[in-house]
Amino acid sequence: MEPSTGRLEAFSDGVFAIAATLLVLEISVSSTDELGLGHALLHIWPQYLAYVTSFVTIGIIWMNHHHTVSLIARTDRTMLFINNLLLLTVAFLPFPTGLVGTYLQRDGEQAAALAYAGTLVVMAALHQVWWGYARVNRRLIADGTPDSALRAVDRAYVPGVPMYGAVFLLAFFSPLAAVVLTFAIAAFYLPSAALFDR
Amino acid sequence: MEPSTGRLEAFSDGVFAIAATLLVLEISVSSTDELGLGHALLHIWPQYLAYVTSFVTIGIIWMNHHHTVSLIARTDRTMLFINNLLLLTVAFLPFPTGLVGTYLQRDGEQAAALAYAGTLVVMAALHQVWWGYARVNRRLIADGTPDSALRAVDRAYVPGVPMYGAVFLLAFFSPLAAVVLTFAIAAFYLPSAALFDR
Amino acid sequence: MEPSTGRLEAFSDGVFAIAATLLVLEISVSSTDELGLGHALLHIWPQYLAYVTSFVTIGIIWMNHHHTVSLIARTDRTMLFINNLLLLTVAFLPFPTGLVGTYLQRDGEQAAALAYAGTLVVMAALHQVWWGYARVNRRLIADGTPDSALRAVDRAYVPGVPMYGAVFLLAFFSPLAAVVLTFAIAAFYLPSAALFDR
Amino acid sequence: MEPSTGRLEAFSDGVFAIAATLLVLEISVSSTDELGLGHALLHIWPQYLAYVTSFVTIGIIWMNHHHTVSLIARTDRTMLFINNLLLLTVAFLPFPTGLVGTYLQRDGEQAAALAYAGTLVVMAALHQVWWGYARVNRRLIADGTPDSALRAVDRAYVPGVPMYGAVFLLAFFSPLAAVVLTFAIAAFYLPSAALFDR
Question: Which of C8, C77, C89, C105 to mutate to test the interface with B (most CBs of B within 10 A)?
């Protein structure tokens, strides 16, 4: 029996939306700041930056995931397992996001940025494995899907690991620049890659 | 390729419902109150006010968003990006809601109310940009949608920024009044605006 | 324009499921218990009782809500506002559940149980207002719905306020008994009331 | 009246996805580690292990649940109540997962692992009761479902209690081994059991 992709999709959609919305719980402000709450709220700007970066990243990755699932007609146990690992990585993102928000511009910022970038590298790698498994010999691809649609997804997923690998390397030199680059990837690169390829 | 609005809608619905339900996690009571738990539970009334205000606001905005999406037939990468920014703001609301609940009637109440009102101003502005982008030259509007339906949405979104701007200004003078006005907008103005216009 | 009940339903379903699942976040154990973790885990049994009671209650109320919505064909702004208030009360339940779990069998247990029962009374009252508004003169009821189906829902909702009112009164004498009665209502009364009436 | 399984399914799907995604909130790192954040992040590896184990377990159990529901045509009050108890156990999992993550390799690890395995035993037992209730005399089974499909589900659910019972016993000797065995069950046994039986 080869189950359809319906339940894989429902579970995935839920996890993406919940993970993005949980990000806000990582934001907190210390009420003991002697300069007052207004100052404290400005002082925690790294938390806002980390929140915005992760929210936009999850939103875009969800759209790519959702688009790709629409090309897939069936699933199997290996695919479900890979998909679970991928979702596990997405749902993990609030933790390193919280680290970046807390430690950026403070002791530990390098470790926080490396944890963040490392999670994104794993996520990109799993996304590529996930797609590669479905695509090889059109194993799980819907009949009638044109090759051009498959190649468009290929082109979208191939740069993922190198791009987030570059973020990882950058984190050694400038954790802040690494986070900004992550935001730029989500804002400028990903939206144009898979969804609107011509 | 122009994706339909289905996935935009599912992701948006999830984020609205989760953000509203997470608001309760911002409520807490200090068990060290020497007058007993009963007194402490009455003492934290600003937290209840903030909770109710944000819940009703998210509920109504979600309905307006959902209604407007029903007029939109297709989406593009710019629209998805604006929608992501809008959801990001909605999902952020539990944080300033928690600030208002914690700081109202205490030191820092002005900063808390300004953060709250500022978030609502940004949300209203993004909602207007979101709608404006779809509506200009009927860029993303479903064929056959009558002009009167578009004008009804216009009338509903135009007052958003001025209204929440007024809340922002009021927060300088009376943070409590600003929160009460926010509640009144959600309870009395928004329900009548877009959904039931004739 | 009279919107259909679709979006009311999707938002409601989400809030019920999320509120029930968030209950677990109210459970915590103090790691400083000198008798060891095993003892501490047994010692917090009120938290398990509160968790189970609220989870079963939300689950059953959600089913009743969902069933009733199936009899409703259209909605209006008043209905949406009442529904929002009802969901607001459901989503609030994790807070008094946490109070009961923390304070039962300790100082403050009466206040905790009263807050819990009070929330349930408000929820039952709003549920009745919600149904009454839809039902009067069959204002929002689907054509062709038999009167017997409406009377079945009447019979299910009428005892809500008295029952939870009895829980409230009982909380003055025995907070523990009040929580146990709440569990019994969810386990034995509610499932038989609206859904399977003949 | 015999309600269909639609609402049971929607509520269940939501609870599984939310419970899995909430697991990340149990992960935290102490910022006071004097060896720096990088060291602290490596030191909390039991939290990652617990997170991955529970996420994969919930993901697989959700797929089995979803598959089984597809064989069920109708529901009744007993079934809804059993299903609620089952979901209650799933939604509880983040708490013992947090215990395992916090206490593994420290004082209290046995109690934590027993709480974790005990929850899984209860979940497996309820899953079997849930299935048994639907299956006896094909009480709730869709007409036309072949006996082989029922026997496949039988074979998938029967080993649940013994397997998690073995995890429970193993926790007395080696809490770490118990968690690793739990992961292995989710990764290797469960995917092959119900979904792809031939």
Answer: C77
